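Appendix B. Chain record.
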Amino acid sequence: MNSKIYEVDPNTNNLNPVYQTLSQVTTHMNDNTYGLESLGLKNLGHVYRNLSVPQLIEKALARGEAILTANGALCVETGKYTGRSPADKFIVDEPGVHDEVDWNRVNVGLSKEKFDLLYKRMLAYVQGRDLFVFDGYVGVDPNYRIGVRVINQLASQNLFAHQMFLRPNSEELDHHQSDLTIISVPGLQGDPDIDGIHSEAFIVISFQKRLVLIGGSQYSGEIKKSAFSFMNYLMTKRNVLPMHCAANMDDKGNTALFFGLSGTGKTTLSADPDRFLIGDDEHGWSEDGIFNFEGGCYAKTIRLSRKNEPQIWDAIRFGSMLENVVIDPETRIPDYDDGSLTENTRVAYPV
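Structure tokens predicted for this chain:
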């Protein structure tokens, strides 16, 4: 860790005006909260940091968050929200970034005062609760990667973060510093009348504090897209083009990019057994080439078959996480043709 010690304002009514993340706070990494107190997270239950995949699966099953399927994958149901909710995404309107954001119907502002209120409600909500922490990275290229800390109420969502982002080795974990903190507490529901939001769900990103707060939705895709939004903002400042696309490469080093909206076939087209997969969704294009932001794939599974998509089919095994796939209650065999919960059935697995 950086030996320099920074002071943190103990008054949670006044969050650090720059940003309050663990890249600036190193004094509590050896306590049993792994530095969470620096974010105002206090009086917690157990805090688990970077549990192994089997441990996270055990926790998710014991807590009733998911079931184990016949192929070994964990399967969760996300309730009301089975996809991302763009209408519930907000950017904190702060002086340091106000002139850098094109405010419109997509980039919707939330006042700093409303964000601080939501943050304080989150601090109260997590008291006495267990939390799961994943410390890892976004960005395969070491010249551009950033440290990310994901704090979850649910063990299953922490498994998702473990599989989707870049996993540190033991030395990297010992020296990990976070440039972005994502806090996901699906059990905390927002109040539009109080919080200035549109529903019980909220995804709020503060570029200035380098902090994302997610509540009211259990859909894990909000976690990965929040990291992508931050990379969209940060990478352009470093002369890197962030891209929503899949990418693969042939044996001569020629790269193909596949652009398209979610569900239009990027993952399927990039999963060519005769080509090297770079990634299926989020990439950067620097002067040195194309690099994946992620450490995993988040593929659609509706009407999935071994014949048409063998790489995705074979990736669904112990350690992967299915979302909203209908499972036979007795055999525990997934039915990928059943879209009764949603057409947006998904699987997250590492690459």
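Further analysis of this model is presented in Appendix C.
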